[in-house]
């Protein structure tokens, strides 16, 4: 995801509060986008749906 896309709807968890230490995610055509909420124009990750499912399951198990 090297180019910002104005048509992508980014969201963050309602549980994240106002602390500013959040990630935002977006449903993309074939992947899930992940970015830092403090730097929306900065680097982004693009994870396959399987990678996203594995990541969130791992984080929930901690």
Automatic annotation (TrEMBL):
One Pfam family in the UniProt entry: DUF397
Highest taxon of the lineage: Bacteria
InterPro entries: DUF397 (IPR007278)
DUF397 domain residues: 9-60
Name recorded for this polypeptide: DUF397 domain-containing protein
């Amino acid at each position: 995801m090297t180019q910002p896309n104005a048509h992508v709807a980014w969201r963050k968890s309602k549980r994240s509060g106002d602390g500013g230490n959040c990630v935002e995610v977006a449903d993309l055509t074939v992947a899930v986008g992940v970015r830092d909420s403090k730097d929306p124009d900065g680097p982004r990750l693009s994870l396959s749906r399987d990678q996203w499912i594995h990541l969130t399951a791992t984080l929930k198990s901690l």
